[in-house]
Structures are given as structure tokens and as C-alpha cells.
Amino acid sequence: METSTDYVNHVSIVKELNIYQNAEDSRKNALTFEAVYEKAKKADVKVDTAKDFINSLSRNEQFSIGFSPSDLDSLSNEGAYNLLVHNYERYDWNNDGVTEDGLAKTLPMIPQNMDDDAKKAWVKAINAMGDDMMAVMTISFQLNEEYTKRQIAEHLSQMSDSEIDEMQKHASFDIREFIEETLSKPYVPKTLTFLDIMDKINQTINPPAEGYSSPELKESAQKLKEALERAYAEIQIQKQEEQLVTQQQIEFIEEADKMLNKEKENELAKAIKEI
User: Which residue windows are coiled coil (predicted)?
Assistant: First the structure.
């Protein structure tokens, strides 16, 4: 199976979401799925070999992972691989901003382009929200704005010139320029930080003049903001403590090395004296 450093690290963080800790994967309830999962691990299935592996499974095994043989031609390598793993192990392998699971496409709740501290804090904050997911879902969608922007541009690019001309009459931006600027560049979303998440939350709590947030959404967002601030502070304290321990270990090793060298010098001096 895939074991790249970025993937393994991302999965180790995402796995801590309560929705994965407290709720069983719907497919995990079937022992057959776990058997297929172990079979895939043993066969060391990769993204580019997942379709062939799935095609070699029995009909019962294919059913356990939610696959229909009629979907094979429409199935991407990423979609095939993600059928073989648990929910928290699903990954956007082609880096197009969306995670494919079979034929389904979903926006990730934990974007892969977040830095590790932001991911950990975001996971902790989501867990702290319990059943209040209003602000979480709103902010999660906003964090994927690069993908959303590209989807809008692709949709507009498929419209006829006359349709774009008609839409342009009511638009506040140059539609053709937007399409060109968006689609002429590769999809490379910027790395999201803690401050980027906070910015989205603050805009939800205090929306600009042209925006609107319901009282319920504002309340949920305020709760999410406080949870995120606590989570990020905890992570920074933990990092400082780990760095302190590491520094203490280095100092201990250096001191022990000095003592050892001193003992060797004394032994050498003693040996020379005896000669």
C-alpha cells in the first residue's frame, strides 16, 4: 500500500477526528471488507494498480467495498484505491483538490494543503465542537475556495459567447479574464496556516458589508474560534516542551561525552606516568 511520508503523516492526524474514532466505517462492519483490506496490504496495492486488483476480486469482495463491475471504465486510479482503505485513509492522490472514493467526489474536511500545526489544531477544534457542525461545515467549504474557484471557472468556460455576454452585463468582474487567469495556471493551492483558518472564522463572525451570517452561524463560529485558539495554544506548548526535552537530552549527552573524554585523558596520563 502507499506509504509516502506526506500521506502517512496526513492520515495520522486525520485519524484523530472523533467521527473516525467513535463511529465505525460503514464498510468496516462487514468482515469481508477487512479481509479485502488485508488482502490489498499483502499484495502491496498502489494507486496505479488498484483497478486491476479490484477487478481480480470476487463479486462478494467487490460488493463489500461498494464497487460495481459496471463502474470499472469510469473509475479513476484514485477512486479505486480509496475504495480499498478506511475513511480516514482516503487521499487526494492527483492533487486536484477533491478526494475521489469510487465514483464519488468530496471536498476534504481537513485540506491536505494545511500545515501540520493547522491540521492538528483544526482536528482538535472540530472534536471540541461535538454535534455543533454548522460553522465547521461552513469554514471547511471556505478553506477549499481554490478548488471551488476553479470549478466555477471551468463551468463558465463551457458557456457560449452569447451566454457569457449576457452574464457580463450583471457581473462585477471581467468573466473572460477570470476564466483565463484561473484555468491558465496549474492547480497549486497555497499552504493554509492557523491564521488562514482564523481569518475565515472572523469573516463569518463579522462578515463584510456585502456578506451575511445568521445569528446561529455567528454563535457557532465564535465557539469554533475559541476551540481553535485553545487547540493551537496546546499544540505550541507541547512543541515547546518537546523542544526543551530534546535540548536537555543534547546537553546531557554533551556533558556525558565531556566526562568520558576526561576519564580517558586521566587514564592516559596515568599510563604515561607509570611508564
Answer: 214-245
